[in-house]
Amino acid sequence: MNIAVHCPSIPSKRSLIIGSQNTKLNSRVKFSCARGNNLIGTTEIVCLPSGNWSDPIPTCEIIECEKIDNLTDPNLRIATLSRQVGGEIMFSCMQGFGLDGPTHSTCLPTGEWEQPFPTCAAVTCPWPGDPPHGYAAVSQNSYRPGEHVSISCEPYYVLDGQPKLVCGDNGEWSAPMPICVQACPYPGTVIRGRMSTVKFYYAIGDVITFSCDENLKIKGASVLRCLKYGKWSNSIPTCVSRNETQRT
Questions:
Q1: CA within 13 Å, CB half, 143
Q2: What is the C-alpha separation between 174 and 214, in angstroms, rounded?
Q3: Considering Cα of 214, then 215, then 219, then 222, what sign does the dihedral take?
Q4: How many helices (H) and strands (E) are present in the chain, helices listed first?
Q5: Per residue in 28-84, pLDDT tens?
Q6: Which residue segments constitute the domains of the chain, with CATH numbers given?
C-alpha cells in the first residue's frame, strides 16, 4: 500500500508572499516579498520523497535607506519622515539661504535615496530700481535678508506706498515698489479748528476747507486748492477770537 507523501504546511511570515499551499510530493512553491522587502533565502522549494522541503522557508527583510548624518552642504537641513521604501526625507535651509533643487527625496526599492539632493544658496533680493520721479537712498546689486531700501521722491512729488522695502527670507521685497505722484502734502493742523478732508496727500485740483471752533473766526484763507507742482494756493489759516479779528 502506497502512502501519499506530504511535506509540512508552510507557515505565514511577515511580508512573505507564498505562491502555493500545495504540499504534495514534487510540489513546487515559489516565494517573493511585499514591496519594500528583500527575500532572504531561496525563491523556490520542492517537496522531496522524504516528506521534507528541499530548502528552509525564506524570510523577508525590510529595506531601509541609510541614515544621513554627514552632509556636504553645511547649510542644508534634513527631516526624516521614514527610511523604509516609499518613505521620505524633507529638505530645508538655514535662515538666509534657499533651496536649489528638490524639496524632498524618496527611499527607492534599491535601498538608496532618490537623487540628486539639493543645495542651499544664499538668498538675495535684486536691486528694485528707482521709481519714476523718485530714488533709493542706497544703490547696490543685491541685498541680503533683513537689509532694506528707503525710497524718496523728487521735490513736488509725494510717495504713495511703503517708504521702506525690506528683503525677506524668500528673496522677495516686503512690499511693491511705491510710486511718486505729483500732489500736495498734508498741509498741517489748524489749532482749535477743523479741515474738511484729512489725507496723506492730495491730488492736483483737490480742495480743502477750514472751519473754527465755536466763538472763533478764521484768519486767512478758508479754502485751499492743490495747484500744479504740488503747492497749496495759500498757507493754512489760523483760528482766532472774534475780538482779535475785529482789532485787525
A1: 24
A2: 46
A3: positive
A4: 1, 24
A5: 999 999 989 999 999 999 999 999 999 999 999 999 999 998 888 999 999 999 999
A6: 16-62 (2.10.70.10), 76-122 (2.10.70.10), 126-182 (2.10.70.10), 186-241 (2.10.70.10)
